[in-house]
Amino acid sequence: MALRYFDAWLRGQGAVALDGLMEDAATAEIARVQIWQWLRHRRVNARVDDVRALFERTALARELPAFFTADGYARHLAPSAEAQA
Q1: Under DSSP, is residue 15 helix (H, G, I), strand (E, B) or coil?
Q2: Assign residue 78 a region: left if phi > 0, alpha if psi is -120 to 50, beta otherwise?
Q3: Which CATH number is correct for 1-45, 1.20.1220.12, 3.30.200.20, 1.10.10.10, 3.40.50.300?
Q4: Residues near 48 by Cβ (< 8 Å), separated by ≥ 6?
Q5: What CA–CA distances, in Å, run from 26 to 1, 44, 54?
Q6: pLDDT of residue 81
């Protein structure tokens, strides 16, 4: 939400409908500060490097995968052959 609002703000929109809800600078600030605090105080339960890599592979790739879940399952959730042995 924060990224989408930042984009709208840079285009001169003060409030925008995102996913059927009206969002404004206050909502974006809450999201931005919450993420900063999670990272600063190491309260992120997610593996930040893995999350970033998954996003980059599935959202920034030259070819768009049909779903991000196939890559995510294969790399992070499916048990590896070594773990099963």
Answers
A1: strand
A2: beta
A3: 1.20.1220.12
A4: 39
A5: 12, 22, 29
A6: 53
What does the pLDDT look like over 9-67, one tens digit per residue?
A: 889 888 888 888 888 888 888 888 888 888 788 776 677 788 888 889 888 889 988 88
pLDDT value of position 79: 67
3-state secondary structure (DSSP) of residue 79: coil
Contact 23, 1 (CB under 8 A): yes
Question: What are the structural domain ranges in the chain?
Answer: 1-45, 46-85
Kindly give the pairing relationship between strand 21-24 and strand 15-18. Answer: antiparallel
Q: Is 24 in contact with 6 (CB distance < 8 Å)?
A: no
Arithmetic mean of pLDDT, 59-82: 81
pLDDT surpassing 60 at residue 72: yes
